[in-house]
Design goal:
alpha+beta, 9 helices, four-stranded mixed sheet, 19 strands, ten-stranded antiparallel sheet, T-fold, 27% helix, 375 residues
């Protein structure tokens, strides 16, 4: 773990961005702009001391940068944030013996399991958005993820029979959550919770709270590509945070720049996490309603005030697709999205920006899908 005191805060977030459009959201092809070799740097003076550090938890590297009145406070704030991430991991790690999610999965079809408030919050939010997305986001997707080889060493693409078998053990409606007894019960044997599409967001929210409670005044946390911005940003009278967004086909290339209030950004793309199978590879975005990989989009990035919402919705909206995704978040003023459509090889993507984010886009240069991806 390394720390570094710096006089100015580099306020740049590189994320593969695609966000959902509300009804009537326009599709923007955009003007081809020059590709820069570096993402945008926005330096502004921040009061006090700025400290950066990194940590590994929740299957990813965490980068935290905070501003505080003094070095001791900044250090304590970062350590409090990392401790919060470790606590979340201990509750929901699928592969950790003794975690609450492991206990829920082990008791599938047998009995309810009493859970702590944090696990209960993640489960409740996941079930709520599973219903809102009509199952496009589903926390019981575990059997399908296993069938497709996520977590195996030598993987073979599943046949239709194996997919059907796994799909029979998926379904958020089969989860019995009792808020009074604080229990979670998977009603059928072989069911399995996989909360990874919500956990990073929840952890970011808890980290932000812990960092601010420890005395930090502002900062940004990056957890495996999902980002939380807290406190006043560095640009303009609205104290916005400037964000650079990377091309899903070429992460070294910036395709958009935004200015957003304090909140969270989460990106979902099939190119971000893949499993190598015999005869090819497949992205991690499996449609829990069909059992097969979701297609049609190159990426979706969601902005929301709470990171658990942005995390869940970036997955759910990707699976839903642009039209149904737009309808799902219509009326949510604090949620915005950008969809990047998957074009034919050798063509430029269409990009759909929701009305709530349209005024936040400073520059848009849609991604170009190469004829051959260099993976």
């Amino acid at each position: 773990m390394r720390s570094q005191s710096i006089p100015r805060l580099l306020v740049v977030v590189t994320a593969l961005l695609s966000i959902s459009c509300a009804s009537g959201g326009e599709r923007v092809e955009g003007e081809r702009l020059a590709v820069r070799t570096a993402v945008r740097e926005a330096y502004q003076e921040l009061p006090g001391v700025v400290l950066s550090d990194r940590h590994f938890a929740l299957e990813g590297e965490i980068h935290a940068t905070v501003a505080a009145p003094d070095t001791a406070t900044a250090r304590a704030a970062i350590e409090a944030g990392f401790a919060a991430a470790d606590s979340v991991e201990g509750l929901v790690d699928l592969h950790r013996r003794g975690s609450e999610v492991s206990a829920i999965n082990a008791a599938a079809g047998e009995e309810p399991v009493v859970v702590s408030p944090w696990t209960e919050t993640i489960v409740a939010a996941s079930l709520d958005w599973a219903e809102r997305t009509e199952g496009a986001f589903d926390p019981t997707v575990g059997p399908l993820m296993s069938a497709w080889g996520f977590g195996c060493e030598e993987c073979v693409a599943p046949d239709s029979a194996r997919v059907r078998s796994a799909l029979a053990r998926v379904g958020w409606e089969k989860v019995r959550y009792d808020p009074e007894a604080h229990t979670v019960f998977l009603t059928e044997p072989g069911m399995a919770l996989d909360l990874r599409a919500a956990t990073k967001g929840f952890a970011l929210d808890r980290m932000g709270e812990a960092i601010m409670d420890a005395g930090a005044t502002a900062g940004i946390v990056d957890l495996g590509g999902d980002h939380l911005f807290f406190g006043p940003g560095t640009e303009g009278p609205e104290n916005l945070w400037p964000v650079s967004l990377a091309d899903p086909y070429d992460p070294g290339r910036e395709f958009a720049r935004l200015h957003v209030p304090a909140g969270a950004l989460s990106m979902t793309s099939p190119y971000r996490r893949v499993v190598e199978l015999t005869g090819g590879s497949v992205g991690h975005l499996i449609d829990p309603r069909t059992g097969w990989p979701a297609t049609g989009l190159a990426s979706v990035t969601v902005y929301a005030r709470d990171a658990i919402q942005s995390d869940i919705l970036s997955t759910g909206l990707f699976v839903l697709g642009q039209q149904r995704g737009c309808e799902t978040i219509e009326g949510w003023r604090d949620i915005g999205a950008i969809f990047v459509f998957e074009p034919a090889p050798g063509e430029k993507s269409l990009v759909c920006v929701t009305p709530s984010l349209r005024g936040r886009v400073e520059r848009l240069d849609p991604p170009f899908r190469p004829l051959v991806r260099d993976d």
